[in-house]
Write a structure and sequence with these properties.
Helix Hairpins, Beta-Lactamase, Heat Shock Protein 90, about 45% helix, about 20% strand, 5 domains
Amino acid sequence: MRKFKKELNQDDLLSLVLNTVDQVKDVNDTIYIIQRIEKMVIEAFSAEWAILWFKDIKKDNLYSLTINKSNKTEIPTNIGLIGKAFNMGKSVVLKQGIYENAYDKTIDNMLNIEQKDIIFYPILSDSKDVIALLQISNHRKDIQQFRQKDLEKLDILEKHIAPIIRMLRNGSLEKKTNHNNVPKDFDLEVDKIIEKLTKEKDDAERMMASSTRFLAEVAHEIRTPMNAVMGFLELLQLDESNDEKKLYIDTAIKSGAMMVALVNDLLDFSKIEQGMMDLESLVFNPIEEYTTMGPLFSSRMKKHNIAFNTFIDPNMPRKIESDPHRVKQVLSNLIGNAVKFTPKNGRILLSISFNKRTEELLFSVTDNGKGIAKDKQEKIFDAFKQEDSSTSREFGGTGLGLSISQKLTKLYNSKLELESEEGKGSKFFFSIPLKNKIIDGAMQYDKKLINNVNIKLIFKEKCTSTSNILEKYFKAFEISNNQIEKLDNWNNIDIDHTSHIFCGRDTLNKESIQDMLNHDITVTIMKDDIFKNYKEGLKGDIHELPCAFGADKLYKVMFGRDLLRDMDICQIKKNFALVVDDNAINIQFLKAVLDKLGVEIEGANNGQEAVEKYKKSVKSNRPYQIIFMDENMPIMGGNETTKNILEIERKNKYIHIPIIGLSGDSTEEHRKKSINAGMDDSITKPVHIKDISNILEKFLDKK
């Protein structure tokens, strides 16, 4: 499992150091104190391991007391990276340190653990001699790297931890035979450090709180006049007919919007820095929630002549518990950036899918824009920094968007990542873990509808991105490849083996489309202009679908049904039954039994009511899967009701629904009479749960 660096702000780091110092107070065990310091360093740097080496006064060696607690672990000061760092006498960050010429595995890796990056930090005496060396290492398989900015954390260590290390080295380690005992007056010195640390932490908290209040007040003061400025500008724009003046007003409005966005970003950034940004805990349907992202940006994409596609996985959990709004904020930032750096006629894809194995939602925004140079990819996530100064001049912005997005994803225990190649485009992606947050994991819809489709995709070469997205959705719906045929024109379409046609604007042929509609084939035009009516003048089952569509819209144009509603229905009960009985208690009993077996029922008090309910069910989107029929009823008996239902089935070529007789007569003669009337089976009253279970298993394959 990959590990991600936990970026600590100054307040977090001070709290960590204060907690460590407080733990070693009143402890008379040097090795325990050193272990606590090493553990603190590991947490501060998100490191794999850390070792504190002391300089031996008598010998030209460094030694550790924690690698082997029973004996000193000694190494010379002139071998390996440790020796080189010791003799340099200054902090150093080594990326891919294991490939340095001076690296010596037997010296630099005493714990025999794979490592990648290494930090060496010397502890100096009052006379500036190196008396100890802190070695911090990261695992080679860990994707994180130490950065130069990590050295800033060492300033706090120098101020508050280095004095403790000096005391240990000058006291118990060199002047006493018992290395376990701490120096005299150690606790007194630690008390002073705690007092100093507490004051520094309180000052930092007050400063951050003060800066947040200041930002909030300034934001309010800016927003109020900007509201009026932008409002009046928009009014002026409505009445202005001069093109040049309209351009000036439009520029002013955009500049105002940028200023308001900057204020909002600054507030969010400040809240996150202070740990004041909390995630909400809401239960929602991710398909319903995230599908809104496509239409939100469609008009903006059209304005920039960018092809925008979305893939919103229809197989996501039905309900999850999370905060959808902050994820949408991150996606808005990423899509906004993609628009900014993607040229005209470029492509942007928003993809949201679900990994069932890891129980994660996967988000990505991919573009084919200018891309980001490899040596500049790391710093774009830092606040107020962009790829380079020319980026800011050409595209505007403050560099806060990606920094805020990175910090927001960390609130979800995730990380915003980047894959990019200069001149070819970028992909920003992150995941949201849903372990123990899936409220309802079953995503089900009517597979019978899916199995009966035969699709033709008619697109030219330049519209393959839309065609590819359609195929991705079809695959998600488990439509097989042999149900799909790709064409580039309308010639030679096999009408008898076609149920649905999707075409692009570049293959639009109204004469051919009308011919298909006349043969009861559903046709959908993929439109790149949301304001244009491409189906005007056409009659039949004709639809339009904007390119940034979701699974729900595709399902609607293909089957005329609501995907989310179908999922709800399938999830609530897998099967739907009609129970016909003039005795309300019998209906109530069967309802309780069938409910336990996962079947929802409707009741009818007599045969006539049963026939009417049957008619409504087959005309609706939810027909019954089985009917339980009492044989002895007033108005219309069970056998007569069965014959009426079978006649309706035959006349309209409806799929047969199994009808099961309920009778108080257990004789074989009576059973044959029921079967001859058209019933599929018969069970005798009083009905037992096992009887119902056997019937369901026999006719609905429900086990």
